Amino acid sequence: DCIEWLNENTSELPSITNNLSSESEPQWIAIPGMYGGFSYGLFERDGKPLLIADSWVRVVGGSGQTHEITPESVTLVAEGYV
Fold first, then answer.
1. Pick from 15, 60, 62, 9: which is nearest to 35 by CA?
2. If DSSP codes are grouped into helix, strand and coil, which group holds residue 3?
3. What tens digit of pLDDT does each residue of 25-43 get?
């Protein structure tokens, strides 16, 4: 189960830092047992940080979701793909 994995593997979780914004490609973290995972990238919009995270489970059609995450909110901006 994902919660158990998270509790056992905290050192493997990615850090979201300003250095992430210099990456030219989104980063990826696979979640064992999820048959998928998350891609994420840090950008700037209107002078504020914007984290974009995509998630999907490859054995569940249409499970893809994209979220835009700011210091003020989390917004689902796309779903139903992959």
1. 60
2. helix
3. 899 998 877 889 999 999 9
